[in-house]
Design brief:
The complex is a heterotrimer of chains A (326), B (293) and C (420). Chain A is built from 15 helices and two strands. With 326 residues, chain A is mainly α. Chain A has one domain (19-325): ABC transporter involved in vitamin B12 uptake, BtuC. In chain A, strands 1-2 form a two-stranded antiparallel sheet. The two termini of chain A are 38 Å apart. Chain B has 293 residues and is mainly alpha-helical. Chain B is built from eleven helices and two strands; from the N terminus they run H-H-H-H-E-E-H-H-H-H-H-H-H. In chain B, strands 1-2 form a two-stranded antiparallel ribbon. In chain B, a hairpin with a 2-residue loop joins strand 1 (135-138) and strand 2 (141-144). Chain B is globular. Chain C is globular. The longest helix of chain C is centred in the first third of the chain and has 20 residues, at 46-65. Chain C is 40% helix and 17% strand. The chains are: A mainly alpha (326), B mainly alpha (293), C alpha/beta (420).
C-alpha cells in the first residue's frame, strides 16, 4: 500500500425529498392553508390570498420555460388570457362549471404552448421572446373580433348561487381552488426540476449548441417545456372570469400580467421552484397592500423600483442570496 | 384614375409615411437591440417621455416640435449613456444580461411612465406644428405634411447615422463591437466606452421619434405601449444590426397596416402585420438583411 | 334638512348662495357616514376618474357644510383601482368587510363597475354606478342604479337624435357610413346606429371598427370617402378622435352630417387642440353650458370644480364627468335623507320609487336601475375660432340640437373639418 493517504469519500449528499414525498407534503400544505383561511373566514383574506396564489401559479409556470430552459416568454398575458377566455367559451358552449373549465383551459394552453414551440423551433433567445410578444398581439386581435366571447364588449360570467358544500362563500371556494392549483403547479415544477427533463433543460439553458452536441434532444425538451408552461399559465387564468365576473380583452391581455410573470421569478430566483413562490408572494402582497394603502399611481412606481433594485442588487433573486451565504 | 387604384396608391403612400414614423421609433432600437444586444424594452417609454417634454416646451416657447426634439437629443444621449453605465455595471459585467437586463428595463419603463403621470398628470399633451394642417396633393395622392415632415426628418437622421456608422472611426467601432468585443479590445479601443456612446445615440433617436410622434398625434404617458411590439418586430424583420433593413421593414410594416385598413378594415391590421412577422420568423429568421446567426 | 328633496334643488342653490347662513346651521356630529368606492386615479381611465373624484369631494364638503347627512358628517373612502378591473373586487371586499363603510358607490366605466357587482350583491348593498352601460343586463340585481344618460334601450334610442337630425335634412340622406372604435361602449352605439339606419331605410355603405392601437386614420377616412355616404356616424375615444378629425381635415372631407359619440372634444385639451376643426361637428354629449340646460346647482358645481381642476392638473372645464359624478352622490343622499337611516333595502326601494332632482335634471330609475328616460344630447360645435378656451365657457359655441325640449340652436351644414 502506498503512503499516500486515501482521500476520504466526500460526505454523502443531503438526502433530497423524493418526488412522491414532495407531492404528499404539498397536499398536506394545501389542506393546512385551506383550513387556515377558512378559520380566518374573512372575505378580504380570501380575495387577497387568491390574488397572490394566482400569481404563484403564473410565476411558477413562466419559470419552467424561462428559468429552467432560459427561454424568456414575453407573452405570458396571452396564455393567461387564453385560459380566461377558454373558461368563457367552454362555459358558454357546453355549460360547464369552474372545474371542468380549468381542465379544458389547461388543455388549450398546452396546445397553444405546443404550437408556439413548433413555430419557434429554430429560434433562440431574443427571437423567441419577440415571437411570444407577437402571439400576444395576434391573439388579442382575434379575441377582440370574436363576438361569441363578447369581443371588446367583454363577457360576463355569473357566479353560481349555490356554494359547494364545505365552503361558506363562493370566494372561499375560489380561494381553495386556487390553493390546490398553486400547490399542484409548484409540485409539477419541482418534479420537472429534479428529473432528467430538468437536467436536460438546464443543459439547454447553459449552452444549447453544446447540449445538442452532447445528444440532449433539445427540440423535444423545448416542446415539453413550452407545453407544460403554457398549460399552467392558462390554468392561472382560468378562474379569472369567476373572480372578476367580467372579462374584457384590454385587462385580460394587460401588461401587468406579462411584467409580473417575469418580475416575480426574477426577484425570487429562477433556478429553483422556490424562487417564483417567494417572488410571487412578495411582489403580489406588496402590490395588494399598496393598492389599499398608498392607493395611487405610486403603486406601479413601487413595482418598477423594487424590480430595478432587486435585479441590480440580487441578480440571482432571493434564493440566490440564500444560496450564496452557504 | 380608377377609384380603387387611387385608394391603393393612397394606401401605399400613407403607409410609407406611417412607416417613416415607425422607422424613427425603431432606428434607436436597431442600434441598441440589433447591434449591442441590449433588450431595451423601455425604448418606447423614452419616446413618450420625449414627446411629452417636446409638447411642454412647445407650449412654453412655440418652437417647432421637431426642432425642439433635435435640441433635446444631446440631453437624451447623456441619459442613455448614464443608463448604459448602470446596465453594464450590474448586468453585463456579471454576464446576466439576458433575463435580468430585461427586467431592469421593464422596471425603468414603469418608472418613466409613472413618473410622467405623477408629474404632469394622465392627460394627453399635444403640439401643433405650423405645417400640420397643410396637405400637398400630387394628382390623386395626398401627402399630409403632418406625416410627411416627421418621416423625412427621421429618414434624414437615419441616413446621417448610417453615414456615421460607415465612415467615421467611432461609427465603425460601434459596428465592430457588435461583431467581436474582444477583437476591439486588441485594437486598444475600450468596448465599454463605445457601447456607452452607441446606447446614448439610441436613446437620442428615441427623443427624435418622440418629437415625430407628438406632431402626428397627442401623447400621454402610455403612448409608448402600442409601439413596443411594433418596433421589436420591425428590428427583427429588418435583420438585427442592419439599419437599412430596419428602415425597409418599417416602411413595409406601415404599408401592410394601411393597405389592410383601407381594403379589409382596420380591425385586422395588427394581426396582419404581426402575422407577417411570425411568418418571417418561421421562414427567414435572420430577417431581410441580417446575416445568418 | 329633510326639506332638500321636497323643495328640490332650489333649496340647495339657495344654501350655496348664502354660505353664512349655511354655517349658521349645526355642524354635523357623531360617527361619520362612510361612503366607499374605487376610482381610477391612475391609468388609462384617470382622465375621467380624477374629475369624478373631485366632484365627489365637492359634494361631501357641501353636505358637511350644510350639517351633514342625518346629522352626521360624510366621509368618502376611495382607493385607486389603477384603471384595472382586477383590483376592484379586492377593493370593495376591503371596503365592506375591513373598513366597514356604510354605503358604496361605483367607480367610473363599465370595466370598473362590473367586477364590483358580485361583491356588492353578496352583501346586498345598494349600488349607484357611474357611466356604465348594460352592466345589469346579466346580473339583474334589484339594488343597482345607473347614472348614465343612455337608459336601458340603448339599441333603440341611442342614435335617435342623430337620425332625427339626419332625416330633417334637405335633401334626405340615403346612405350612411359607420366607423367605430372597438370598445364596449362604441359597439353598442354602432349597433344602435345600424338598427336605426335600417328603420330609416338608409343604406349602410361602410361599417367597420378599428382597434385602439391605430396610429394613422387616413386610410379609414379615405375608405369612407370612397364609399360616398351622405352622412357619417363615428364613435371614438379621445386618442382616436383627434386622429380621425385631423385625418378628416387633411382629406378635405365634406359631408352633410358627420359625428356621433366621438368622445374627445369632451376633454378640454382636445377642444383647444382641434379648434375650428370642430365646427359643424355633431357630438353626443351629456351636458353643455347652454341656457336651455341649466338645472339648479349645475353652474355652481362647475364653478367650484374648475379651480380645483387647475390645481390638480385634470380636465379644465369639467363639463363631462363631474355633473354626473355629483348626481351619483346626490341621489344617494336624497334617498338616505328620506329613509332616515342606513338601511340598504329601504334605500334601494326609495331609489326605485322616487323622482330625483339633480344637477343634471329630474330623473327616475326603472326596475333594472337605468333611467326611465334617456337623455342623450346631440350637440353641434359652431363658430369656433382659434384655440382659446373662453369661447367654450360661453353659450352658443356648443349648441344643443336634440332633444327638442333642450334645443338651443339650429343645425348647420356641411361638416368640412375646419376648411374655409
Amino acid at each position: 500500500m502506498s503512503e499516500a493517504a486515501i482521500p476520504a469519500l466526500p460526505a454523502a449528499a443531503p438526502r433530497r425529498m423524493g418526488h412522491g414525498a414532495f407531492w404528499l407534503a404539498s397536499a398536506a400544505v394545501a389542506l393546512l392553508l385551506v383550513l387556515a383561511l377558512r378559520g380566518f373566514g374573512n372575505e378580504y383574506a380570501y380575495f387577497a390570498a387568491t390574488f397572490v396564489l394566482q400569481y404563484v401559479v403564473l410565476a411558477t409556470a413562466w419559470n419552467i420555460l424561462g428559468g429552467y430552459a432560459g427561454y424568456v416568454n414575453f407573452g405570458a398575458a396571452a396564455f393567461f388570457a387564453a385560459g380566461a377566455y377558454a373558461t368563457v367559451a367552454f362555459g358558454k358552449a357546453l355549460g360547464l362549471g369552474l372545474l371542468p373549465c380549468i381542465a379544458l383551459a389547461a388543455a388549450t394552453g398546452g396546445l397553444m404552448g405546443f404550437a408556439t414551440g413548433i413555430l419557434t423551433l429554430r429560434l433562440r433567445g431574443a427571437y423567441f421572446a419577440i415571437a411570444t410578444l407577437c402571439l400576444s398581439v395576434v391573439l388579442q386581435t382575434i379575441v377582440v373580433n370574436w363576438s361569441y366571447v363578447g369581443g371588446s364588449r367583454g363577457a360576463y360570467v355569473i357566479r353560481p348561487r349555490e356554494v359547494p358544500w364545505p365552503f361558506d362563500t363562493y370566494g372561499g371556494y375560489l380561494c381553495a381552488v386556487m390553493v390546490v392549483l398553486a400547490v399542484a403547479s409548484v409540485a409539477i415544477a419541482r418534479t420537472i426540476e429534479r428529473s432528467r427533463l430538468g437536467l436536460g433543460l438546464a443543459a439547454l439553458r447553459d449552452d444549447e449548441a453544446a447540449a445538442e452536441a452532447a445528444g440532449v434532444p433539445t427540440l423535444r425538451l423545448k416542446l415539453v417545456a413550452t407545453t407544460v408552461s403554457g398549460a399552467l399559465m392558462a390554468t392561472a387564468g382560468a378562474p379569472l372570469p369567476y373572480l372578476n365576473s367580467y372579462v374584457e380583452p384590454n385587462s385580460a391581455f394587460g401588461l401587468a400580467y406579462a411584467v409580473n410573470a417575469i418580475a416575480m421569478p426574477l426577484i425570487g430566483g429562477t433556478s429553483s421552484w422556490a424562487g417564483p413562490v417567494i417572488g410571487a408572494v412578495l411582489l403580489a402582497s406588496l402590490q395588494q397592500a399598496a393598492t389599499v394603502t398608498i392607493s395611487s399611481a405610486a403603486n406601479l412606481l413601487i413595482v418598477g423600483a423594487v424590480l430595478v433594485v432587486f435585479v441590480c442588487a440580487a441578480p440571482h433573486g432571493i434564493v440566490g442570496l440564500f444560496r450564496g451565504r452557504r | 384614375m380608377d377609384p380603387d387604384l387611387a385608394l391603393l396608391l393612397n394606401g401605399v403612400v400613407s403607409g410609407l409615411l406611417l412607416g417613416g414614423l415607425y422607422a424613427a421609433a425603431a432606428a434607436g432600437l436597431s442600434l441598441s437591440f440589433g447591434m449591442l444586444d441590449v433588450v431595451n424594452i423601455a425604448h418606447p417609454a423614452f419616446m413618450a417621455l420625449a414627446g411629452i417634454l417636446v409638447a411642454l416646451l412647445w407650449a412654453a416657447t412655440g418652437l417647432d416640435p421637431l426642432i425642439l426634439s433635435i435640441l433635446l437629443m444631446p440631453a437624451f444621449w447623456a441619459l442613455g449613456a448614464a443608463l448604459y453605465v448602470a446596465y453594464h455595471r450590474f448586468f453585463e459585467r456579471r454576464g446576466d444580461e439576458a433575463i435580468q437586463g430585461l427586467a431592469f428595463f421593464f422596471g425603468v419603463m414603469f418608472i418613466i411612465e409613472v413618473g410622467i403621470v405623477l408629474t404632469v398628470g394622465p392627460e394627453q399633451h399635444f403640439a401643433d406644428a405650423a405645417y400640420a394642417s397643410t396637405t400637398w396633393r400630387l394628382g390623386e395622392i395626398d401627402l399630409p405634411l403632418r406625416m410627411l415632415v416627421p418621416a423625412l426628418v427621421a429618414l434624414a437622421a437615419i441616413g446621417g447615422l448610417v453615414l456615421f456608422l460607415r465612415r467615421s472611426f467611432t461609427g465603425r467601432a460601434i459596428a465592430a463591437v457588435a461583431q467581436d468585443r474582444e477583437a476591439l479590445r486588441l485594437l486598444a479601443i475600450d468596448p465599454v466606452r463605445i457601447k456607452r456612446l452607441a446606447f446614448g445615440i439610441s436613446i437620442a433617436f428615441a427623443a427624435l421619434a418622440g418629437g415625430a410622434l407628438v406632431v402626428v398625434q397627442p401623447v400621454d404617458a402610455a403612448s409608448g405601449h402600442v409601439f413596443i411590439g411594433r418596433i421589436f418586430a420591425i428590428v427583427i424583420m429588418g435583420g438585427l444590426s442592419s439599419l437599412g433593413g430596419c428602415v425597409i421593414a418599417a416602411l413595409a410594416f406601415g404599408v401592410v397596416e394601411n393597405v389592410t385598413a383601407t381594403f379589409y378594415g382596420p380591425s385586422w391590421s395588427p394581426a396582419v402585420a404581426f402575422g407577417c412577422l411570425l411568418l418571417m420568423l418561421a421562414v427567414r429568421p435572420q430577417g431581410l438583411f441580417g446575416r445568418v446567426a | 334638512m329633510e326639506g332638500i328633496s321636497r323643495r328640490g334643488l332650489g333649496g340647495l342653490a339657495a344654501a350655496l348662495a348664502v354660505p353664512a347662513a349655511a354655517r349658521a346651521q349645526t355642524a354635523p356630529s357623531g360617527p361619520p357616514i362612510r361612503i366607499g368606492c374605487s376610482m381610477s386615479l391612475s391609468g388609462g381611465l384617470a382622465g375621467n376618474g380624477r374629475p369624478a373624484a373631485i366632484a365627489h369631494r365637492i359634494w361631501a364638503e357641501e353636505v358637511n357644510a350644510r350639517g351633514g347627512l342625518l346629522g352626521r358628517p360624510v366621509e368618502i373612502v376611495v382607493y385607486d383601482d389603477q384603471s384595472t378591473g382586477a383590483q376592484v373586487p379586492g377593493i370593495y371586499t376591503k371596503l365592506i368587510d375591513v373598513d366597514r363603510v356604510d354605503l358604496v358607490v361605483s367607480g367610473y366605466a363599465t370595466a370598473i363597475i362590473a367586477p364590483a357587482m358580485p361583491v356588492v350583491m353578496q352583501r346586498n348593498m345598494a349600488f349607484v354606478s357611474l357611466f356604465g352601460t348594460g352592466v345589469n343586463t346579466d346580473f339583474r340585481y334589484d339594488r343597482y342604479f345607473s347614472i348614465n344618460c343612455t337608459g336601458s334601450q340603448v339599441k333603440e334610442t341611442f342614435a335617435r337624435g342623430f337620425f332625427e337630425i339626419a332625416m330633417a335634412m334637405e335633401p334626405r340622406p340615403r346612405s350612411i357610413a359607420l366607423v367605430n372604435l372597438d370598445s364596449d361602449f362604441h359597439q353598442r352605439t354602432a349597433e344602435s346606429a345600424r338598427y336605426l339606419a335600417g328603420q330609416n331605410r338608409l343604406r349602410v355603405v361602410y361599417d367597420r371598427a378599428y382597434p385602439p392601437s391605430t396610429v394613422d386614420f387616413a386610410p379609414i377616412i379615405r375608405a369612407v370617402q370612397a364609399a360616398r355616404p351622405d352622412i357619417v356616424f363615428l364613435g371614438s375615444y379621445p386618442p382616436d378622435t383627434a386622429g380621425l378629425l385631423r385625418a378628416a381635415s387633411e382629406l378635405r372631407v365634406n359631408f352633410g352630417l358627420f359625428g356621433g359619440p366621438m368622445i374627445g372634444p369632451h376633454i378640454t385639451a382636445q377642444k383647444l387642440q382641434l379648434g375650428p376643426i370642430l365646427n359643424n361637428l355633431v357630438v353626443w354629449d351629456v351636458y353643455a353650458p347652454e341656457p336651455t340646460l341649466q338645472f339648479p346647482g349645475t353652474q355652481a358645481l362647475i364653478e367650484k370644480y374648475q379651480p380645483i381642476a387647475a390645481r390638480e392638473n385634470t380636465d379644465a372645464l369639467g363639463h363631462y364627468v363631474p355633473p354626473l359624478a355629483y348626481t351619483q352622490m346626490q341621489v344617494l343622499e336624497q334617498a338616505v335623507r328620506r329613509v332616515g337611516r342606513i338601511d340598504q333595502a329601504a334605500i334601494a326601494a326609495d331609489l326605485h320609487a322616487q323622482q330625483f332632482d339633480t344637477v343634471i335634471g329630474p330623473l327616475r330609475f326603472d326596475a333594472m336601475g337605468e333611467w326611465t328616460e334617456e337623455r342623450n344630447l346631440y350637440t353641434q360645435y359652431q363658430g369656433v375660432q382659434g384655440n382659446g378656451v373662453d369661447q367654450f365657457r360661453r353659450a352658443g359655441t356648443q349648441v344643443i340640437l336634440y332633444p327638442s325640449r333642450y334645443r338651443s340652436g339650429e343645425f348647420r351644414r356641411p361638416y368640412t373639418a375646419g376648411a374655409a
